[in-house]
Amino acid sequence: MTPRFIRHPGPVSADRVAAATCRARRVELTLLPERSVNEAVADAFASLGAKSGYIRLRGAKVSPMRYVIPAATPDETHAAWYSETFAPDGVTVIEDAGLIVGSRDGEPFLHCHGLWRTPDGALRMGHLLPLDSEFAEPVEAEAWALDGALFEVRDDAETNFRLFRAVEGGMRPSDGGRKTVACTVKPNQDIGHAIEGVCRAHGIESADIHGIGSLVEADFEDGSRLASYATEVLVKSGRYEAGGASLDIALVGLDGSIAEGRLTRGVNPVCVTFELLIVADE
What we know:
The protein is mainly β. It folds into two domains: 17-22 and 174-280, CATH 3.30.1330.80; 24-144, CATH 3.30.1330.80. The protein has two helices and 20 strands. The chain has helices spanning 37-47, 191-201, and strands at residues 17-31, 53-57, 60-62, 67-68, 70-71, 81-82, 92-104, 107-117, 123-128, 139-147, 149-156, 161-168, 178-185, 206-215, 218-219, 225-226, 232-241, 244-252, 258-262, 270-280. Strands 1, 2, 3, 4, 7, 8, 9, 10, 13, 14, 17, 18, 19 and 20 form a 14-stranded antiparallel β-sheet that branches. Strands 5-6 form a two-stranded antiparallel ribbon. A hairpin with a 5-residue loop joins strand 15 and strand 16 (225-226). The chain is globular, with a radius of gyration of 18 Å. The N and C termini lie far apart (37 Å).
């Protein structure tokens, strides 16, 4: 099986993974309605004294709901782009979604990929627009709050996007929580190999993997494949142990097709970026 490759418009950076060691505290949040999803998440994290982390949403009702899926680029300034905005009429129920919480231009910002059931009963997937969507009622959610690392949006010359980058900062690492590495992965690296390299470099023997990102197509262990050069990915379940990473994911392609399963190791390169928490077993 030949590894795939996507060419981005800018110079290939030498730094292929940004990693920041920190501690992660498992917390429960109440996300309030009648404000944007971005503001609701920012308020909940601020109440903890935290600026960055990861949230998992299940069963959250959203209205209005605004989202996009991957699309072909309209010009040569990017390797891929976004579709028109989808705006379901009524209440959409998020079945499973992951949210990276960080900052952009000094203000709270988040990045969300997930699966949702639109009011017509259809299962859809995509990239939620956090400034244009609202929770329809209070949502109880599980999250990891980071001490000692942040996800910050920065200009990325290689892809010509503004992307989250994992950096050290925020609260000083505490004695509580679990040893964690926040990391962001550059294009054209197998995502499993990248995770394994981070774990080896930081002395992690076993860990849970949380996050979202994008892949150039996807090959699964059961032999199935999603043939879309740009995708949006949610890590549904991820583990690192015995020197290897395993990722069960859901992803959506350019035509809106959804696929789920365990990724084949060594043949699934990142498309634009991957944003991860590697939370060690302690």
